[in-house]
Structures are given as structure tokens and as C-alpha cells.
Amino acid sequence: MNRQSTWDSVWPPLTLMYISAALKEAGFRTLILDANVLPEDELERSARKFSPGLSIVNTATPTFGADLEFSGKLKKMGSLVALVGVHPTALHKEVSEDSRVDFIVRGEPEETSRELALALFSGKGLSKVKGLSWKKESGKAVHNKERPFINNLDSLPWPDREGVDNSRYKMPFSGEPFAIINPSRGCPYSCTFCTASVFYGKSFRKRSPGSVCNEISECVSKYGIRTFLFWSDEFTLDRKFVLALCGEIRKRGLGIKWFANSRIDTCDPELFREMRRAGCFLVSFGIESSDQRILDLARKGTSVSRAKSAVLAAKGAGIETIGHFIFGLVGETEKSARGTIRFSKELGLDYAQFYIATPYPGTPFHEYCSEKGLITERNYSKMEISNAAIRQGNLSAQDLLRIRRTAYREFYSRPLFALKKGIEVLSKGGLLGARSAFRYLSDWGELGK
User: Fold this and answer.
1) If you ran DSSP here, which 8-state letter would residue 161 be given?
2) What are the sequence ranges of the domains in the chain?
3) Sign of CA dihedral 259, 191, 57, 387
4) Whole-model pTM above 0.85?
5) Which residues pair with 320 in a beta bridge?
6) Spelled out in words, what is the top-level CATH class assigned to the domain 170-445?
7) Distances (CA, A) of 87 to 60, 145, 436
8) pLDDT tens sequence across 152-198
9) Which CATH number applies to 14-143?
């Protein structure tokens, strides 16, 4: 199960779709069930009807408890259960002790999942399946050697889009169907709060522009999808790759719209102009804070001044911008938080998202908060970026929630800004877009309360 995204939209279950494609390529029959779009009773009926021999459950920290409960139901149906995701990867020794879990696929999941299924089908032993944690008949947990990350991403089959109802996944505001494309994996940076390297590692790996465009072409011709999210840990890290991909998109005349993320120090005006020519309409920046000391303690590796130039470069190219900010990182104070709110309004961003630092298992931030006794919420379902699970300095969990509410209210309730964005939303998505925008502000900014 994955939580609904912070943009009032449900994202396609990309990890499960990749795993399903890898299993189908190996000759297995698969069924993808997305708990974000299906009620639990329908999930159970569909699973029971399919009668899986092996169920692979993608889980995250906030949904871990609910996913374990459903795993127990799958076990009662006679299925073996494997968990994938950052949370079970980081806590595989702890999670493998749970009776509802038979296997843990650690890290990048496609090849390990395929080898696990083949080993079970053939009756061969599991000891040589790299990246796998499993139990012997005695109940003792075994943790096999780590699996190397996949160097040739072009070798992976494209996500199994036939296995999902693509019409369920729509852009906020406009209601257009969209798909997620994964052009690269891995992040070499060391941000203390981020889980990216736990799952896909620090080595940056990219697909060929031709492979990415072939997948896009299939989405356009087969599923009628023309809007895409290029989902990478760090999309603009390799400038030559981005330029080559943009050139290939234009060369083929794909006529698509897309959005992606960028670090504020891996972009420039020319890059954004080329991205815009290739159909990019929105770029997302992880700005986090306006306090340089906080950024340094978080090992962000960026400067406050670069945020300003990055936003200006994107806007100068005609690309809309969204900034992401985090309250509660090490060193946060009431004064620094107020400065970040003020900074978010000064940057000229089109949108902003405000989070609370979350001590996700597997991150240095979790280790720090655990050692300092800063974690106030041990219930995993409450450990998510829209909730406060920590205190920081003189700021309590309630203080952090108050600061987040204030940030949303101040950013989105500016009269001229609200009028401008309201007109834009109506022009893009009509009444559907207006309703989506209101839900977005109400749910995440708590402006409707």
C-alpha cells in the first residue's frame, strides 16, 4: 500500500508494476492490486480468486502496520508473503521475525523477486538468491548476500501497465491521465533525512534516451497517455543525459507534457530551456530550509543562494516551479522556521509543499533522533511527512504542526497569489481543477479548517 501523494492524486504503483513485468518475462502469471484505489474487501476478494502462491507486498513506514495485517490475510489464503520497500529493507532483521512474513526482498526488487519466484517454482534452495532474507524450516532467519544494483537499466522490462487501470491515475487540477517514467536510479548525495540510497543506492545509473522514448511512445499509442512524471532520485544530475533525452523527445515529435525534479545546484538556464522545448511544464526543487546551518547539518550540500537562481532559471524558461520545505531538521528553531516560511514566499514559486522532518528507519536522521531521544511517536502509521513524530530543540511536535499549518496558510492565502493561481487552475482544469485545488489546500494546508 502507498499513501496518496501530496498533490491530491494517486500515483501508479510503479514498483509493483516493475516487479510484475519481471515476473511475466520469466513466465509467471501476475495480478497487481493497488490498495490506493481498491477498497479492502475488493482486495481480499480479488486475491482469494487469484489464489497466489507468492504475494509480493510493497510497503512503506506509514503503511507498514496495515500492510502486515493484510499480509496475515494472504497467509491464511495459503500464500507465501514477501515484503519489498525501504522500510523492510532497513529493518530486515526485525521484520523477518514476524510470522506474517516469509521473505524480505532487500533493495532494488526486480531481479531478487524474479529469482525468488523461480527458486520456489523449481524447488531449488534459496541460499543463493542475493538480496533475500528468508526463514529456514526451524524458523531461523537467514540474510543472504547483498545484491549488486542493476547497472544496465535498459535490461529491465517496462512497467506492467496492462496490469493496472491506467485511467485511475490522473493529474491534480487538470484530471489528465498520467504515467510515471523511471529514467534513472540512484543518488550520490548524503542528505541525512532521505531514504533514496537505502533502496536504489548511491551509484547514479541511467537508461538510454532511446529506451525512455520507446516506453513513452508505447504509453502514447497504446494507452493514450500524454502527460508524464519523470521519477528519479536526481533527474538533472547528468546534464548530457537530460539534453540527449530532450533532443530525442523533440526529434521523435512525441508531443508530450512532463514534469521532473531537480537539485538546485544541478541546473542552469540553458538546461531548463531545452527541457521546456521538450515539453517540461513543471520542475520540483528540494529546498528544505532558508537556514544554511540547517542545510549543512543535514548534509544537503547546497546553498540558500542557489535556490533563488534555480527558481529564476526555471521561470525564465517558462517552467512552473514547486519548492519543498522541511521543518524540524537538526538545528531548527522558531526563528529559522519563520525565516523558511518568509523565504518560500520570496522565491516566486508557483507551488510549495511543507513537510515535517520524519525519522524514517535506515536514515542518519533516524539514528540521530533515536540517540537524542527526540522521537515522540513510535507508531509507524504516524511517521509520515504530514505529521510530527519528533521534537526538535525547543520545538515540540505540536509546535512543528503549528508551523506547518502557518506555512501553508501564509503561502497560499496571499490575495494576489491566490487570485492568479485560481485563474490558472480554472483555465487548466475547469471546475474539476477548482475542486482539486480546494481539496489540496484543505487537506495539506488545512486552510479549510
Assistant:
1) G
2) 14-143, 170-445
3) negative
4) yes
5) 282
6) alpha beta
7) 5, 18, 31
8) 999 999 999 999 999 999 987 678 899 999 999 999 999 999 999 88
9) 3.40.50.280
